[in-house]
Write a structure and sequence with these properties.
158 residues; alpha+beta; five-stranded antiparallel β-sheet; 29% helix; elongated
C-alpha cells in the first residue's frame, strides 16, 4: 500500500475558498485579544505581550496564505537586513571579549573540520578576523597561523 493511501485524508476547503490566515498558525496558550475580560475600548494595549503575539500570528498567517505576496520582496529584504545587523552585533560583541595574547579554542563553526577543538593564541587582527597562532600546525596550515571570525572562537580559562 502506498504512503498516500495510508495517510488519513484531511478535509479540504471548497474550491476557490481561502482558509483563514489564523487557521494555519497555532494559537497562543492564553486567550486571544477578543477574549479578554477587559471592557475598555482597547481590549489589549499595544505594549502588552498578548497584542504582540496576536499581531505576529496575523502577520505569519497573512504571509502563509498569500495575503502579502506583493510585499514579499520588501519583507524579505527587511528580514535579511535585520539578520545581518544582528550577526554583525554578535560578532562585534565576541570580538570585544577577545584581546591579543588570549588563549582560545576553535569552535565547531570553523572550517575545515579538522580544526575543531584546536587551541592557539590570538596574535593580532586582520580586518574583522582574529589571527591565531595554533599550538600545533595542522593540515594545510603549515605555519600554524590562521584567521578566524570571532564568533568561532571560545576563550580558554587562564
Amino acid at each position: 500500500m502506498s504512503k498516500r493511501k495510508r495517510k488519513p485524508s484531511r478535509p479540504r476547503p471548497a474550491a476557490g475558498a481561502r482558509p483563514s490566515p489564523l487557521t494555519l498558525v497555532p494559537g497562543p496558550s492564553g486567550p486571544g485579544p477578543d477574549e479578554h475580560a477587559n471592557t475598555d475600548s482597547d481590549p489589549d494595549p499595544a505594549g502588552s505581550p498578548g497584542a504582540n503575539a496576536y499581531e505576529i500570528r496575523m502577520l505569519i498567517g497573512l504571509i502563509a496564505t498569500g495575503g502579502l505576496d506583493e510585499h514579499l520582496p520588501a519583507i524579505q529584504a527587511a528580514i535579511g537586513e535585520r539578520h545581518r545587523h544582528r550577526q554583525r552585533a554578535k560578532s562585534n560583541q565576541a570580538a570585544a571579549q577577545i584581546e591579543i595574547g588570549d588563549r582560545v579554542r576553535l569552535g565547531h563553526d570553523i572550517r575545515p573540520l579538522y580544526l575543531h577543538g584546536a587551541t592557539g593564541t590570538v596574535t593580532g587582527w586582520a580586518g574583522q578576523s582574529a589571527v591565531i597562532q595554533l599550538d600545533e600546525p595542522t593540515g594545510r596550515f603549515t605555519t600554524g597561523q590562521i584567521r578566524c571570525p570571532p564568533l568561532g572562537l571560545q576563550p580558554l580559562p587562564e
